[in-house]
Amino acid sequence: MKVIKFFLLGYLFFLSWTNAFALSPILPVHVLLSMAAAIVIGVHLFVTKKKIKITPYKNEDFLLCVFLISFCISVLIHPNSASLNYISAYLYVFLIAYLLLKGVFYNYLSADEIKKWLMYGVLITALVSISEFVLEFSTSIDFNTILFRIKEEYSNYAGILPRSLAFSHEPGILAFYLETIGVLAIWFISQENWKASWKALSIVIIIAGWIFTFSAASFVALFISAVIVLSIIFFQAKRIKDFIFISVLIFALLVIVLVAMNIATDTFMGDIIAKATLSEANVSARYRIVKWQESIQSIIENPIFGIGPGSAAAKGNVGSLSWYIFLTKEAGLVAVIPMILFLLIKFSRIVSSTVKGKNWFLFAFLNGAIHLAVISTFFHPFLWALLVVFEVISAQYIFKRSNTIING
Fold first, then answer.
1. What share of the chain is helix, strand, coil (3-state, %, to 5)?
2. Where does 139-239 have alpha helices with state H?
3. What are phi and psi of 149, to 5 degrees?
4. Contact at 8 Å (CB) between 114 and 13?
5. How deeply is 273 buried, as exposed, middle or buried, from its count of CB atoms within 10 A (0-12, 13-18, 19+)?
6. What is the pTM of this model?
7. Does residue 278 have a pLDDT over 50?
8. Burial of 395 (0-12, 13-18, 19+ CB in 10 A)
């Protein structure tokens, strides 16, 4: 049991380590820990004949099986030199990093253990992000020599400020982690029995670590997610004063963003605004639009089974810079439809949940789901880990509440 917990808690702690100290680009620390956990758990179950409780599994998880079968059919129809790599990646992410770990977490870890180790991992990552920004801005220290990142895409903001990578290889990936798992950590910290000053400091650290990524996609994701979550809270509100408060909050948020877009375009925030609004003046935004247009044309020509997973990689080309478009282009509608349905049902489950802090889970989920619209790195497990944590905590909460009712 202790060995199993070691690997599982280690997985949560090292979740952001997608590049630092990795054996290879496809074998970062958290992947090695999850694979080790799967092997140890398999041996443990075989020896002890213990059965895993399937409580956290839901009907919609079957859609992942449909998705993977459809994905494999597309590979068989359009094989290429990168097919095996893509099949391996998708099978690992959805069979091990999602389906297997969900059951294992529920059976071997408590909600408190999950929360604490996620918090520790986020705080360390955010501290490294801040340290990297400060040191690279004020000194000539190369942070890569400290963290041994095997792959690094250095970038700066406005040609002046370094963008933090922390344990990842690209600022957008770090932002992806902090806008999903980091949001959960902020909620968990707010519930801890800490001094108010320590809570405030910890939350500021996480927010600062995120800001230093200067990720336009993350800013957009957070804004859209905030509007959606506030709108849902508005429609679920039962008191007039709650309606008024949320209405004012949504209106203020929209006004602030619109004013910022008009006033700050020619200021320090100009680059983020140009990229976020897909302005043709921004090279990155212009490049994304071109890739999306090319991919949509390919989808129109090959809508059902796509052109084959791994086609772009096999030709040495860049992906579609949007996982949803990329998946549709390469695996077709037969694969993307069950995946979209899966995500929509998960969204509905979080909205209808009675778990404390569900709106934080919803906010984090939407951040990750929206961010995947402008990146293709589905194999970074942040969104899937978030769903695992939500469903495990939700199942344990329901179980505990049921026992409380039964026992009076």
1. 70, 0, 25
2. 144-147, 171-191, 196-211, 216-236
3. -85, 120
4. no
5. buried
6. 0.92
7. yes
8. buried
Tokens of 330: 């390469």
Show the tokens assigned to 401: 């509440």
155-194 residue pLDDT tens: 777 677 888 999 998 999 999 999 999 999 999 999 999 9
User: Quick one: tokens of 174?
Assistant: 């770090």
Q: Token pair for residue 333?
A: 């509608």
Q: Which amino acid is at 203?
A: I
- Report which DSSP code applies to 152: -
Task: List the one residue out of 208, 126, 213 whose CA is nearest residue 169.
Answer: 213
CA angle 350, 353, 358 (to 5 degrees): 65
pLDDT single digits (tens) 81-129: 989 999 999 999 999 999 999 999 999 999 999 999 999 999 999 999 9
Instruction: Specify the DSSP element, H or E, that contains 156.
Output: strand 156-157
Backbone region of residue 151 per phi and psi (left: phi > 0; alpha: psi in -120 to 50; beta: other values)? beta
Residue with tokens 């902090």: 178
Q: How many angstroms separate the CA atoms of 353 and 175, rounded?
A: 27
Tokens matching residue 213: 């990524």
